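wait is this the right file?? whatever heres the structure
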């Protein structure tokens, strides 16, 4: 009986020790934050490279010529030359970003928040075309922030003029300046921030913007049941946030002074 009693006491101590270990495991699980910032879970993959495109895999690396399938982690970036274009896929969710010529950006944030992907792009200059597949994405510039959630968004930033334009082709988007003033954009609307001013009132996307999407984003048929027709949209206005170099020229010729001898001015002479 003494041996049986000792055995029972031993088993009781073992079971007690095991039960004390369970709360520790549960506590550890409970301490896992709802914000999962493990950058290795998500990454950006480069493809469809045309002409001059450079990239760096992380903030600690230098920019090198980009290659097909090259992966960029948080802190990495991409640049295109005047003739360069590229596609960037955010995996695993499947968001597609088309990068236009003369563009440069970094990826300071590639995280998962409450089980949903959250991406931050710091656009230094140039054009981005975002086809979002879940979660949210912010495009930050020195002139403001364009935000897209479950939508299709085009962003253009002119660093020299500090002019930011956002066009929401589908879903819900927003544009906010540095002071926090924000406008909401729904399907078919665009807005711009000019030199630190508040965002402009939303207006209908113009046909030039639509044509840019059709020219630059061959993936559009995968996201739209019916492609938008540029003819169904208004002509670009001079006050739409386009850069001065993109504004259409006036038809009126500049006045010139006629030569004193009465001979025709060479600049005003009719074309042969």
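ok assuming it is, sequence goes like this
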């Amino acid at each position: 009986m003494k041996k049986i009693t000792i055995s029972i006491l031993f088993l009781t101590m073992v079971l007690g020790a095991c039960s004390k270990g369970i709360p520790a495991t549960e506590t550890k699980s409970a301490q896992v934050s709802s914000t999962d910032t493990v950058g290795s879970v998500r990454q950006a993959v480069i493809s469809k490279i045309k002409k001059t495109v450079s990239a760096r895999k992380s903030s600690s690396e230098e920019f090198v010529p980009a290659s097909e399938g090259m992966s960029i982690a948080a802190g990495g970036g991409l640049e295109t030359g005047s003739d360069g274009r590229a596609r960037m896929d955010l995996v695993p969710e499947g968001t597609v970003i088309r990068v236009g010529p003369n563009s440069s950006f970094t990826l300071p944030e590639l995280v998962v928040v409450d089980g949903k992907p959250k991406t931050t792009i710091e656009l230094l200059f140039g054009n981005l075309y975002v086809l979002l597949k879940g979660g949210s994405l912010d495009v930050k510039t020195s002139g403001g922030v364009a935000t897209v959630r479950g939508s299709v968004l085009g962003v253009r930033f002119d660093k020299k003029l500090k002019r930011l334009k956002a066009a929401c082709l589908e879903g819900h988007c927003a544009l906010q300046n540095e002071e926090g003033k924000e406008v909401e954009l729904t399907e078919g609307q665009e807005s711009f921030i000019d030199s630190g001013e508040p965002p402009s009132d939303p207006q209908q996307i113009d046909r030039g913007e639509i044509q840019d999407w059709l020219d630059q984003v061959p993936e559009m048929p995968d996201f739209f049941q019916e492609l938008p027709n540029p003819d169904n949209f208004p002509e670009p206005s001079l006050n739409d946030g386009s850069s001065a170099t993109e504004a259409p020229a006036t038809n009126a010729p500049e006045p010139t002074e006629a030569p004193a001898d009465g001979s025709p001015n060479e600049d005003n002479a009719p074309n042969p």
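The chain has a mean pLDDT of 80. so i think its the right one actually
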